[in-house]
């Protein structure tokens, strides 16, 4: 039985014992350390089996790849890809949607804080340049 992530993909999913199309073309082990830490954080062993980490990586990369392709399809109708395309795709998964909107708002706050910090830093630099005597 073939199933797909999200339910609306027309491409059948490869069996779990065989590498998928995307996993055979990419460099493996790129996210190994991060996934080990995440797996431990979610209750796995501090040093999970390499096979478990590789399987998790394959699943995650396949999910993200499918999500990006779907977002590209949606974005191509408007001519550009945007954050809203991804939010639209996860709109029915409320925990993911809430986390994404939280991260996006934090990103905006950080941008604003950096902007204020840079402008304050520039003002201080100008003040010190004026106060320093020229020899």
UniProtKB/TrEMBL annotation:
Secretion signal: which residues? none
Biological process terms in GO annotation: transcription by RNA polymerase II
Q: Which keywords has UniProt assigned to this entry?
A: Initiation factor, Nucleus, Protein biosynthesis, Transcription, Transcription regulation
Segments carrying the region annotation (Disordered) are 1-30
Task: Drop me one GO molecular function for this one.
Answer: translation initiation factor activity
Q: Where in the cell is it found?
A: Nucleus
Family annotation (Pfam families): TFIID-18kDa (PF02269)
Q: What is this protein called?
A: Transcription initiation factor TFIID subunit 13
